[in-house]
Amino acid sequence: MAESASSSGGGTVEYIQHHLTNWCVGQCDPVTHKAAGFWAFHVDTFLFSLLTAGVIVWMALKLKGQLSLERPSGFQNFVESIIEFVDQQVKDTFPGRNPLIAPLALTIFLWVWLMNFMDLVPVDLLPFLAKLIGIEYLKVVPTTDLNTTLALSLTVFALIIYYNIKIKGVGGYLKMFLFHPFGKFFVPVNIVMTLIEELAKPLSLALRLFGNLFAGELVFLLIALLGGTAGIGLALAFLFPLQVILDLGWLIFHLLVITLQAFIFMVLTIVYLGMAHVEEEH
Amino acid sequence: MARNPSIGPLLIGVGSIMTSMSVVGFLLGYAVDRWLGSQPIGLLVLGFLGILGGLMKAYRLLSHPDLFK
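Structure tokens for the assembled complex are given below, as produced in the milestone run.
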């Protein structure tokens, strides 16, 4: 299949594989350039996630100097509307009060959205520029790297455990494993089921975000291949306009997807932390 | 019967909790089977517990008294 694709379309499989390979440093496979050990670092993931985090910090600092009660700027109104939206979600979903939840939810929403937004940069632009300065592989969307989404979800998971222990106490948390959901007569089953329930939380967070963004990136690559594999001739005259239309359509649709995914990640974080703050009845 | 504003986020959570609990059940079962060489007992038992746990969790969340008020 790879050979036929390669002979008919100028290496479509290689093109997709190239765009889905991270800039790996450390314990990486010299042939596939994939991580081959614990000490493998995806430099592009670090770079773009820190870059997007830097954008948030820069915007916040910029806004801090312009804040006005009498004459708020359009940008201030825009940021206030996002903050109010997130704050309302926390009020609707989170039981009780915790001053950490709303800032955490806002940070997650903005950061995940910005990382997802990198998916809308033309797929060939940044890898092409990187190649000019000698970087062979560059994957520009941090959330298409499972390491990023797992890191985010494991951080949330650590907070879930922390608040479970803080609110319910170590004994209360252990009791949850021993006596939930079937009561004191099914302790071994309870331990397994609660373990499954707890492990499902970070997994569902990480895999949903990664899966959606990875698939989205793949669709962009496939659309980009339409014109790229047509060669010069009549096929190009048909496929190139088709590529532009499909790209535009998918880009508009994907704007919804990236916003929805950032929203879901934020909301589930609030829901899971909310569950950790509730004393369950048995 | 008015809908509670939190119903949307709650329902997003329910769907994902149910599916991911089933997945984690099967994954844990697979890991246990590999560890103990007990194929396919662990996969079946823990997979079943994952599905059951997911369904029970969904039921408990959806039958929360504050869901509709």
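Residues 5-276 of chain A form one domain. The CA atoms of residues 63 and 75 of chain A lie 8 Å apart. Further analysis is deferred to the final report.
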